[in-house]
Amino acid sequence: MNEPALPDAGDAGTFSSPFDAGSWAPDADLEAASPSSDAATEEPPVMMTACGSTPIVLANNLSLGRWIAAGPSDLYFSEISETTEGDAIYRIPKRVPGATPDPLTSDDPQPLSLATDGTYVYWNDTLSPGAILRIRPGDTAATTLLPIDVWGVALGSSSLFWVTMDGVVQSMPKSGGTVVTLGTPSPAAQGGAVGVAVDANNFYFAYADSSLPSQTHVDSIPVAGGPITTLATTSTGIDTLAVDDAYVYYVDGGTLKRVPIGGGSPLAVASGFSNTVTLKVDSGNVYATVSPANGPIGSVIRAPAGGGAAVTLATSQNDPWGMAIDDACVYWANYDSVMMVAK
Predict the structure, then answer these.
(1) pTM, rounded to two decimals
(2) Cα angle 233, 236, 239; round to 5
């Protein structure tokens, strides 16, 4: 299965990082130099950089940056190796420009849905036969939690959620184990779901109607299983969802919309969201990476969650793709770099 043609912190201060600062290129030798035989010298702490209104490069010389997740002190991102053409997952410290990426995995075929719970990093390999995996940074190898061919996977507080290629909504404990069938949407889902999100009570997913492929549904189902509720329908594909305490956010054409999580009428939030790749939301704003289909130069934008004009946070970005946010910063993966900017 090929990658879908898509258009998933703290205050600044001193951060002790295990990674050396400096430039980096894929497949570079990351082994640290041996300490002097006279005495081992302690590495000085790496200073974190505060987010500002000007975008800052955290890592460069990537060959194809794709997905990104933010943990308490580190960022995790995927990219394609120039020599093997197989994706890998890397780690860098947050807010440290020029830090050397640390490879957590290698040759992971087209990883998607990169997420972290602060202890493990989770993703799914989307190249057939597919798998859902996780790794604890510092471990030598990833653990395959389930061999399965799916698109989007959502990480909840204790479980993982997805929609199978034949339209069945499933979950399993995030440590692996028994797969639970939660329900099956009607009309049936065609080809699984890329756009997924989860909160404490419900799993949300966007899928193409098998009886009318030009129509996309945004549905919800309780995390323990139960009736499926259709929240919205659109005539355009939806590849990313975001959810807060009250609403599910999605893009319909070029318009950012929201619909109450309990059901109701969708409302337009902002325009200017054509070719959105990733959505994120916090208590006041919705953030998006926009990567136009007619060229690689995109942008990172923000709009008030309650409605209003979109604001550009970063422009002239080289194919921006995955995004993550924390209390102060927006992080994203470009084709050739990992970036950050103030929220």
Answers:
(1) 0.85
(2) 90
